[in-house]
Write a structure and sequence with these properties.
Order of helices and strands: HHHEEHEHEHEEHEEHEHEEH
CATH topology of the largest domain: D-Maltodextrin-Binding Protein, domain 2
Oligomer: single chain
Shape: rod-shaped
Number of strands: 11
Strand content: 15-25%
Distance between the termini: 53 Å
Radius of gyration: 32 Å
Largest sheet: 9 strands, mixed
CATH architecture of the largest domain: 3-Layer(aba) Sandwich
Number of domains: 3
CATH class of the largest domain: Alpha Beta
Number of helices: 10
């Protein structure tokens, strides 16, 4: 039985006319007639008494209408209250520094555009198994990861050397990369088995005075005057703008860190996931 036939039956019963029911529903009168014949065949009973002047409910028709009318009304209320456009929750994972400096500034705009979509963000340096952990999307730096997924490159991240004005006043500003050997080096220490941020540009000019896999920590140490830090430019940009950090050797730019947006395979993609995916490609990809 086609459930749409019940709505057609209700319209005919309320208007007592095939013609008026067809107008209300925006259907051809012939389609209304076929739907009623099919519904009566399904129930094995005559639901409507038809004359040339009027359509009336039979006892079986009255019984059916009393049962389906509240159900159809409830369904219409659910549809009327349901949000327009994408809705529900999207889960996203990203490295902490990428999440704070790149993702956080754009999520407010996403929520304004899609107020019915909730976003749950997990910040971790671990490569999360999207399928295993039930995550929808991931931002990953360097390589998109292994396994089955769909990856889109958003941008190429760049790194440079940064230090506080207080440190440079005390130790002097290096004029060339080789002079970094006499400075306090704050270098990133990637997890074992993962390539460092500076791959492709050679090793750091000297052993690190302080190493950490968290760029945010290195940023804090550099801001406090602890040395020259190798940092992603997007992470240091705010401190440079307010004068808390200075870019050292600005002609040296280390590039070998693409940022990928990774999603699970399979179609169709839920509208809520597609909405966030397209928004991140629009905002971060444009950057």
């Amino acid at each position: 039985m086609d459930l749409n036939h019940l709505a057609i039956f209700q319209a005919v019963a309320e208007t007592q006319s095939f013609t008026k029911a067809a107008v209300r529903l925006g259907l051809d009168k012939s389609k209304v007639s076929r739907a009623l014949r099919a519904l009566e065949a399904s129930f094995g009973a005559t639901l409507l008494s038809r004359t040339t002047r009027m359509v009336r409910l039979t006892a079986e028709g009255q019984s059916l209408l009393s049962q389906v009318a509240p159900l159809l009304s409830g369904l219409r209320d659910v549809v009327a209250r349901s949000p327009q456009g994408p809705s529900g929750e999207v889960t996203l994972t990203a490295p902490p520094d990428v999440g704070r400096a790149l993702l956080a500034p754009v999520l407010a705009g996403f929520r304004l555009r899609f107020p019915s979509v909730r976003v749950r963000v997990v910040l971790t340096y671990d490569v999360v198994d999207l399928l295993g952990e039930g995550m929808d999307l991931a931002l990953r730096v360097g390589r998109p990861g292994s396994g089955t997924f769909v990856a889109r490159k958003l941008m190429d991240l760049e790194a440079g050397f940064f230090a506080s004005p207080r440190y440079l006043e005390r130790r002097g500003q290096p004029a060339s990369p080789t002079e970094l050997a006499r400075h306090e080096g704050l270098w990133p220490a990637p997890p074992r088995g993962k390539r460092p941020f500076w791959t492709g540009s050679g090793q750091p000019p000297r052993a690190a005075s302080l190493a950490c896999s968290d760029f945010g920590f290195l940023l804090d140490v550099a801001r406090a005057g602890g040395g020259v830090a190798l940092l992603p430019t997007f992470l240091a940009a705010r401190d440079v703008a307010v004068g808390a950090l200075v870019r050292v050797l600005p002609e040296v730019a280390l590039r070998d860190a693409p940022l990928f947006l990774v999603s699970r395979p399979g179609k169709p993609v839920p509208p809520r996931v597609q909405a966030l995916k397209a928004y991140l490609m629009e905002t971060l990809g444009r950057a």
